[in-house]
Specification:
The complex is a heterodimer. Chain A is α/β, with parallel strands linked by helices. Chain A has five helices and seven strands, in the order H-E-H-E-E-E-H-E-H-E-E-H. In chain A, the strands form two sheets. In chain A, strands 2-1-3-5-7 form a five-stranded parallel beta sheet, with helices on both faces. In chain A, strand 1, helix 2 and strand 2 form a beta-alpha-beta unit. Chain B is an alpha+beta fold. Chain B has 18 helices and 17 strands. In chain B, strands 1-2-5-4-3 form a five-stranded mixed beta sheet. In chain B, strands 10-11-12 form a three-stranded antiparallel beta sheet. A three-stranded antiparallel beta sheet of chain B has the order 15-16-17. Classes of the chains: A alpha/beta, B alpha+beta. Chains A and B meet through strand 1, helix 2 and helix 3 of A and helix 4, helix 7 and helix 8 of B.
C-alpha cells in the first residue's frame, strides 16, 4: 500500500450551490447589510460627551458588533455625530464637515448642549443647538447621555436606515 | 538685589483668602516678573477684571501661592511675557476678553477671539458691536522646502477641538504651533452675576474629565471668600470623588494610549475597568462622571447607603487587574513603542509650571495633594516621581497613581466622619482662591463675591501649561525627534485638553 491520497472530488451540484447562495445573500442583507460610518464633530463640547462616546467602544457596549464604526473623515461618513453647544468659532468647521459628507447623510445631536445650547444658551460665543446650522435627524439629550442611551439612539437610526 | 518677596511686602494688600493679594505699581509689577525668573517662581495663572490685571505665582521655596495685581491705566498694563514667556497666551486671552493691552508683549495676535463674536471685548464694561472679522493667522512655513500639516479642529478622534499646525521637512518636525479657542463658550460672562450655587454648573462643565477637580477648586474659592468651613463629611466625600475621578480618567488614558500603540489587550482591560467604575459612581453618587456632585458649601447629596460597599467591591476588582496591566506595560511590545516618545525634561516642565502626571514623569515633583489640598493630610497622599520624561514613564506613573488612589479612596471611606454634607452659605462679599489636583495637574480658581453674587472669576486649567510644553516637545529635534506618526500618541500621552482653557 502506497501513501494514502485524497479521493478526487465529485463535480459540484450547480442547483444546490445557487439556492444556497441566494439564501446566504438574503440572510446577509438583513443581518450584515446595515452599517453606518460615523464622524464625530465637536462643536464646543466640554469633553463629557466625548468620554461617553469613547466608552461605546469598550467591551461592554462594543459598538462595532452592530455595524456602527467611527471614521476619521467626513468623506467616509454616513452620520455626523455632533457634540457641544454650537460655538461661533466652530460653526465654519461644522458647515465644512457637512458639505464634505456625501449624500445620503444624517446628523445626530448628542447631549443637551447640541440639542439647544444647554446651559450655555444665551452666551455671546454660542449660537445654540446643532439645528441652527445643519438639519438634525435625531437628538439624544442628557448631560452627558449615557453610552447605553447613545447606542439605543444609533440603533434606531440603523433600523430606520435599513427600511 | 530686591527679591520678589521684598517687592510684595512693600505693596498694599487686599483681603483675599487664604492668600493676601498685593496691588503693585506698574513698575513693581515689571520688576517682580524679572525677580520671579531669577528666583524660580512659577506663573500659575494670569487674568484680569475691568480695572486690574492679576497674576498668581507659586513660590516653590516657601511652598505658597502669591496673588498680585496691577492697575490697568488707559487700557494698558506692563506685559509679563518679555521675562516670562508662559504669560503670552494669557496676555492674548486678556486682550480678547477685557480689551486690556499688555504693553511690550511678545505676541499680540488674538487667541480666543477668532473674529466671530458679535461684540468685543465681551468682558469689558461696555462691549461694542462689530462686524465679523477674519480668524487669527498662524505663521506660514519659513523655508521653501517645508510643508505644513494642519490637524483639527475636526479630526475624527473623539477628542477635544483644537488646531495643531506642524511645519515639516520630510519626516522632521521644524515647528509645532497650537491654536485654541474653538470651544470658547463665554463661560466667564455666564458665571458673572450668579450665585455660587448656580455658577457651579459652569465650573463643572469647564472640562468634563476634571469636573470634580474644577468643582472642588471653585467650591473652595467660594468658601474661602465667604470664610465658611465645610463639614468634615463633605471634605471626606470630596476626596473619595476626586480619587475616583483620577482612577477613571487614568484608566481611560491607559486605554487610549494602548489603542494608539496597538496593544488591544491593555485597551480592552482598562476600558472594561473604567466602565464598571463609572457605573459604580452612578450607583453611589447618582452621576457616572460625578458632574455637579460637588457644590459650594459641601456636596450635592450624601453617598448612597450601600455606596461604600459597591465602591470597595469595584476597587477590589481594579486592584486585582493592576499587576497584569503593569506587566503588559513592561513587556517589550508596549514598552518599546512608548520608550523615548515625547520626552520632556525637568527644566522645561518646571519653568512652564507643568504639574500633574506630565510634570512628575519629568522629575518635577509638584502635587497639590501634598501641598495645599484640604483633608489630604488625614490620608497622607504619597507622591510618585519619575525622571525619564517620556510616554513610557507617564504611563507607568498613571498605573502607580491608580494604585495610590485605590488606597486613598479605601482609607477616606474608612475614616469618613458622620454628620451633614453641606453648610449654609451667607450672602457676603469677599475674595478667595481655591485649588485642587486634577488628573492633568493643578487647577486654580479665583473669584470675587459681591453680596453673595459672583462679581469676577477666573479658572486656571492645567492645559495653559501643558500645551506650550507639547509644542516644544513636538518640535524638539536634538534630544528625541518626534515623527509625525507619533503625533497622536504624544498628544494622548500628554492628555492635551481644550475646553478648560478655552473658557
Amino acid at each position: 500500500m502506497g501513501t494514502p491520497q485524497p479521493e478526487p472530488a465529485e463535480p459540484i451540484d450547480r442547483e444546490t450551490t445557487e439556492s444556497l447562495s441566494a439564501r446566504l445573500d438574503a440572510a446577509a442583507q438583513t443581518r450584515l447589510g446595515r452599517s453606518l460610518a460615523i464622524l464625530h464633530v465637536n462643536t464646543g463640547s466640554c469633553n463629557g460627551c466625548e468620554l461617553e462616546l469613547r466608552a461605546l467602544s469598550n467591551v461592554l457596549y462594543d459598538l462595532e458588533r452592530f455595524g456602527l464604526r467611527f471614521v476619521g473623515s467626513p468623506r467616509h461618513a454616513d452620520v455626523l455625530l455632533v457634540t457641544g453647544p454650537l460655538t461661533r468659532n466652530l460653526r465654519g468647521a461644522l458647515e465644512q464637515a457637512w458639505d464634505a459628507t456625501p449624500e445620503p447623510k444624517w446628523v445626530v445631536a448628542i447631549g443637551d448642549c447640541a440639542v439647544d445650547g444647554g446651559v450655555f444658551k444665551g452666551s455671546y460665543a454660542v449660537l445654540g443647538g446643532t439645528g441652527l446650522c445643519v438639519p438634525v435627524d435625531l437628538t439624544i439629550g442628557g448631560c452627558p447621555p449615557s453610552p447605553a442611551r447613545i447606542l439605543a439612539g444609533l440603533r434606531t437610526l440603523l433600523e430606520a436606515n435599513a427600511k | 538685589m530686591t527679591t520678589a518677596n521684598d517687592i510684595i511686602r512693600a505693596a498694599e494688600a487686599e483681603i483675599c483668602r487664604p492668600w493676601l493679594r498685593h496691588v503693585l505699581s506698574p513698575g513693581d509689577w515689571s520688576l517682580l516678573a524679572t525677580a520671579c525668573v531669577a528666583e524660580g517662581w512659577v506663573l500659575l495663572a494670569h487674568w484680569a477684571d475691568t480695572a486690574q490685571a492679576h497674576a498668581l505665582f507659586l513660590d516653590p521655596d516657601a511652598l505658597t501661592a502669591v496673588p498680585v495685581s496691577t492697575p490697568v491705566e488707559a487700557g494698558r498694563y506692563p506685559a509679563l511675557s518679555p521675562s516670562l514667556p508662559t504669560a503670552s497666551w494669557y496676555e492674548r486671552m486678556i486682550h480678547d476678553l477685557w480689551g486690556h493691552e499688555a504693553a511690550g508683549a511678545a505676541d499680540l495676535r488674538p487667541w480666543l477671539d477668532h473674529g466671530r463674536w458679535p461684540q468685543s471685548p465681551p468682558m469689558a464694561t461696555r462691549p461694542e458691536a462689530r462686524p465679523p472679522g477674519e480668524p487669527p493667522l498662524l505663521s506660514g512655513p519659513e523655508r521653501d522646502e517645508a510643508m505644513v500639516l494642519p490637524l483639527g479642529p475636526i479630526a475624527g478622534r473623539l477628542d477635544e477641538a483644537a488646531h495643531l499646525r506642524l511645519t515639516l521637512t520630510g519626516p522632521a518636525i521644524l515647528r509645532a504651533e497650537a491654536l485654541l479657542g474653538f470651544t470658547h463658550k463665554g463661560t466667564l460672562t455666564l458665571m458673572r452675576g450668579k450665585s455660587p450655587r448656580a455658577a457651579a454648573r459652569f465650573a463643572a462643565r469647564l472640562s468634563a474629565d476634571a469636573t470634580v477637580a474644577h468643582s472642588v477648586a471653585f467650591a473652595q474659592a467660594t468658601e474661602a471668600a465667604m470664610d465658611v468651613t465645610v463639614p468634615p463629611r463633605a471634605v471626606g466625600l470630596r476626596i473619595v470623588m476626586m480619587e475616583i475621578e483620577r482612577i477613571a480618567v487614568h484608566l481611560d488614558n491607559l486605554a487610549e494610549v494602548a489603542r494608539l500603540a496597538d496593544a488591544p489587550a491593555v485597551r480592552a482591560r482598562c476600558g472594561y475597568l473604567r466602565e464598571i467604575l463609572l457605573r459604580t459612581s452612578e450607583a453611589a453618587f447618582g452621576h457616572r462622571l460625578l458632574m455637579d456632585c460637588v457644590v459650594p458649601g459641601g456636596t450635592a447629596t450624601d453617598i448612597a447607603e450601600d455606596g461604600p460597599r459597591v465602591i470597595l467591591r469595584t476597587l477590589g476588582e481594579i486592584a486585582t487587574e493592576m499587576p497584569a496591566i503593569r506587566r503588559m506595560h513592561d513587556a517589550a511590545a508596549l514598552s518599546s513603542r512608548l520608550t523615548g516618545v515625547g520626552r520632556a525634561g525637568r527644566q522645561l516642565a518646571a519653568s512652564l509650571g507643568v504639574g500633574g502626571v506630565v510634570g512628575r514623569a519629568s522629575g518635577y515633583a509638584f502635587d497639590l495633594r501634598s501641598a495645599f489640598s484640604t483633608g489630604y493630610h488625614d490620608v497622607g497622599a504619597r507622591l510618585a516621581v519619575r525622571s525619564e520624561g517620556d510616554a513610557a514613564a507617564r504611563q507607568h506613573l498613571r498605573i502607580l497613581e491608580i494604585e495610590e488612589s485605590l488606597r486613598l479612596v479605601g482609607l477616606a471611606l474608612d475614616i469618613l466622619p458622620a454628620g451633614p454634607v453641606t453648610v449654609a452659605l451667607p450672602q457676603v462679599s469677599g475674595e478667595g482662591i481655591g485649588c485642587a489636583e486634577s488628573v492633568r495637574g493643578d487647577v486654580w480658581h479665583w473669584l470675587r463675591l459681591d453680596h453673595g453674587q459672583i462679581a469676577a472669576a477666573f479658572p486656571r486649567d492645567p492645559g495653559w501649561a501643558l500645551w506650550p510644553l507639547a509644542e516644544r516637545v513636538l518640535a524638539e529635534r536634538a534630544l528625541a525627534p518626534a515623527s509625525p506618526d507619533d503625533i497622536a500618541l504624544i498628544r494622548a500621552s500628554f492628555a492635551l485638553p481644550a475646553s478648560g482653557m478655552d473658557l
